[in-house]
Amino acid sequence: MSCNNRELLIGNKVVVTLVFLLCLVHSSESLRPLFACDPANELTRTLRFCQVNLPVRVRVQDLIGRLTLQEKIRLLVNNAAAVPRLGIGGYEWWSEALHGVSDVGPGAKFGGAFPGATSFPQVITTAASFNQSLWEEIGRVVSDEARAMYNGGVAGLTYWSPNVNILRDPRWGRGQETPGEDPVVVGKYAASYVRGLQGNGPSRLKVAACCKHYTAYDLDNWNGVDRFHFNAKVTQQDLEDTYNVPFRACVYDGNVASVMCSYNQVNGKPTCADENLLKNTIRGQWQLNGYIVSDCDSVDVFFNQQHYTATPEEAAAASIKAGLDLDCGPFLAIFTEGAVKQGLLTENDINLALTNTITVQMRLGMFDGNLGPYANLGPRDVCTPIHQHLALEAAHQGIVLLKNDGRSLPLSPTRHRTVAVIGPNSDVTETMIGNYAGKACAYTTPLQGISRYARTLHQAGCSGVACAGNQGFGAAEMAAREADATVLTRDRTGLLLPGYQQDLVTRVAQASKGPVVLVLMSGGPIDVSFAKNNPRVAAIIWAGYPGQAGGAAIADIIFGAVNPGGKLPMTWYPQDYVVKVPMTLMAMRASGDYPGRTYRFYKGRVVFPFGFGLSYTTFTHSLAQNPLAQLSVSPYKLNSAIFNSSSNSIKVSHANCETFPKMPIHVEVSNTGEFDGTHTVFVFAEPPRNGIKGLGVNKQLIAFEKVHVTAGAKRTVQVDVDACKHLGVVDEYGKRRIPMGEHKLHIGDLKHTILVQPQL
């Protein structure tokens, strides 16, 4: 029996010990037929592409050399056709695993031995934990379950997750899928989750992840403009320092196996036909070791709806020549052969695309003639108690306490013996897991969770989230009058609560004899200024979409079994923000009457700021040691092209970055309250206001660390500041520069100034 123990850490506190029994106990389970290179097949077992001792590139080229043009073309689409004469089965590339194995794509199906999979909190909620080890561990558990389902013949090995678009606009309905508004946070989440999914081997893949949707994609349908026709007009500055940052981190830091191009155009060109974005940037500059796939029917969209080319054959050629390797949809299967016959495309262009996709399949072990090192995983490894406990722990860490007047929370099971649980989301199941979800193992609703601590009085208050009438308000008010405390659960469809929800909250708060706790279930920001400013609403909790165990996690926090430590990964704007900001305007920086986007550039009023979140205890920061106050930056050589005296800066590409010493910052975190708790240390950098035009940044997060501190104790967190990586900014031409002058580091209420000057 081979077993593996893993510990999930926050700082160096063990949160949960994960014990995985990777033992050969499933030999009697039914396994899928081998995809290729079955050793029992005498026709193929001697072929070079089946020889596992040969380098992958040799095997790939051998296989491609055996395929006819028609066979090659049928491998360019997501439902790739079988090649029976070579013993290769058909394969569905499209599976999803945004926060658990999902059946949204056709590659995975639930039923039989696999009725469900662990459904973790939606990404926006997990991101609020700011815990990189948690993000990676979730990915590792999801890939265990994905491999188990693959072995059982009901899922694939290529998962088109995560979504690493930034949450640019609070109205975007799919913002819940993202890790929030900060490109550094999104990039670190992406790299962590991808490493968890794919494993840490340099060449082998456990499953193949995919970072999507590249790039500047965050509009579905607004004021008659949809994602299929939208032309995102983006400056090189915003592309370099915002939109592309997470994708670069995916490739550089996560070594992701795939990137998905999006439906929209960027500056007049479809992303899936843009050679500069695909071939030159993803594969050229970033050195992607994997394949590029289209969002589903994107090639069809830019031909039939955007009318980018005159013929479908030209569209097929444009996408493949730009660097697209795989089409989610049938378009390339239908029109690629015609493109070759018309001379628009060569067979070698197709070979290059297949080299990238088949290499990933080889790295997954699909041509090894066996199910590989994960063959032992089966139904017993899905929805395990340990996996489900991790889903609960993720919800604990992601839920954010936004208001707690008079320390109303936590409630006491002895003093608050009866709790009114009110609202249309108070007893929901599927709502808690958000979109791109699968079938959960089991659910604990908020009502069920609270019932474990107290007697409950339940009223929906509204007939649904839209809350079109107030007919149920009377019963809700009556329940609130009878209870020792009242918990209201809400959802939203805009920045304001929809329908009569605000009236329900106000009336119930007025009627309640005990503290009122407003629990918000939403995938994005809400303007709840009315509740924030209402003294009758004692506490506000944002739960996001907390996953299958969300109700238990909410109750644990309300009753103090868990001390909340989540922080908002996005700015909560007032309603008047969206009134004056079109979703179609992609500019990040403030200009004139335009207020800018995200905490980095927005200069207006907020309901709650990025990074905000309360605890049942209190924390203070201090600098444990005196950090350096001066840093010299040396270019390769001093000339006007490298050191720009008018902007007083040095291009990062021309700096001797590898010779610069990293500057350690030691932050002492003290827990001055009565509860043990976790705290996120944020380090922001504010650049000097020198001659770089169009900078416009307020501050930028450069690092964050999660730390657990017991009551009355202190912990020291070290953050190493790298001048090239952390103090650089992007100029109006999209070039990253290090400004000379005083850089201010913000750490909580601490500020530390670093003078950066050229070493001439």
From TrEMBL:
GO terms for cellular component: extracellular region. The keyword Secreted applies. Pfam families: Fn3-like (PF14310), Glyco_hydro_3 (PF00933), Glyco_hydro_3_C (PF01915). It comes from the Eukaryota. Keywords: Glycoprotein, Glycosidase, Hydrolase, Secreted, Signal. InterPro entries: BXL, Fn3-like, GH, Glyco_hydro_3_C, Glyco_hydro_3_C_sf, Glyco_hydro_3_N, Glyco_hydro_3_N_sf, Ig-like_fold. GO terms for biological process: xylan catabolic process. Its main location: secreted. It is found in: Secreted. GO terms for molecular function: xylan 1,4-beta-xylosidase activity. Belongs to the glycosyl hydrolase 3 family. This is Fibronectin type III-like domain-containing protein. It comes from Brassica campestris. The lineage of its organism: Eukaryota, Viridiplantae, Streptophyta, Embryophyta, Tracheophyta.
